[in-house]
Q: What sequence folds into this?
């Protein structure tokens, strides 16, 4: 079965698995682990991502991450590129360090949060690297035992759910005998971990996005949306970054991509913008639509009046 597109949205809990290319070792020395953790802390802050759990294994990484306004892709791209550059420079290697496609599973938070925290922090035990999880230096387990925030994660929200550090320790001990949990990987539609209702809700949400349209239709569509906004294509493609023009540009991109199904990379090229920057703008706009019904109604009226 072909791999499904990743689900990229704000305020989503992901179990991210990043593997070394061809299963190669991605951390050769303690300095490598430290370098990855420093970059992880930096981009968590920049992209406003909350880390609930993590574990750096010799040839792969587990992250339990919850996004805010920026998409997961922006965070992961910066993290992986930065560490790959460090690794190649330090160890005098070239080429890809990680597999080209990381796994990002959308998880039902209320049902699986604690189970995934425990499962991720017990990875070194299952791999026979240590006998006790607290002996492993490169995971978030120690922060939960201490009950103190680190540069990577704040354990307090999780500890409040489980009942404090002592209850957490017991919770982890109860999972020591569990082996590999295939159910956490063999997920619905290759992307979702949750109840049937949770999966159905996400699939309905995704199905609202129309299939990609041919690139040759984009020019005509761009003319139509510009006219609907009372501007012209040259203005939308200009370097003008004023609030009024930026607002029109974001609205036009949202209609073209989210309503009419054009590819984000094609729209970014048409607007002479960086695809990653455009993706961030769309995510922020989508969050605004959820909070402002009047903005949503205005968008709906615009989309209905434009014909292509």
A:
């Amino acid at each position: 079965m072909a791999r499904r597109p990743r689900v990229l949205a704000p305020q989503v809990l992901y179990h991210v698995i990043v593997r070394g290319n061809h299963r190669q070792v991605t951390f050769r020395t303690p300095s490598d682990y430290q370098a990855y953790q420093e970059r992880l802390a930096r981009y968590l802050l920049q992209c406003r991502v909350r880390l609930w759990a993590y574990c750096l294994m010799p040839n792969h990484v587990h992250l339990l991450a919850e996004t805010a306004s920026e998409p997961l892709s922006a965070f992961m791209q910066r993290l992986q590129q930065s560490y790959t550059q460090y690794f190649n420079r330090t160890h005098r290697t070239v080429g890809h360090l990680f597999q080209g496609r990381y796994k990002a599973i959308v998880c039902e938070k209320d049902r699986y949060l604690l189970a995934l925290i425990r499962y991720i922090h017990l990875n070194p035990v299952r791999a026979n690297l240590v006998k006790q999880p607290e002996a492993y230096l490169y995971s978030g387990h120690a922060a939960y035992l201490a009950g103190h925030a680190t540069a990577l994660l704040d354990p307090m929200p999780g500890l409040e759910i489980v009942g404090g550090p002592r209850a957490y320790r017991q919770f982890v001990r109860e999972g020591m005998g569990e082996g590999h949990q295939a159910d956490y990987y063999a997920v619905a539609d290759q992307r979702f971990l949750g109840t049937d209702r949770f999966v159905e809700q996400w699939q309905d949400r995704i199905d609202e996005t129309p299939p990609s349209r041919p690139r040759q239709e984009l020019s005509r569509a761009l003319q139509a949306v510009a006219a609907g906004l009372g501007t012209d294509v040259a203005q939308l493609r200009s370097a003008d970054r004023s609030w009024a023009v930026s607002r029109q540009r974001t609205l036009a991109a949202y209609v073209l991509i989210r309503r009419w199904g054009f590819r984000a990379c094609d729209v970014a090229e048409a607007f002479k913008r960086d695809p990653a920057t455009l993706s961030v703008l769309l995510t922020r706009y989508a969050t605004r639509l959820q909070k402002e019904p009047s903005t949503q109604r205005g968008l709906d009226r615009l989309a209905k009046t434009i014909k292509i």
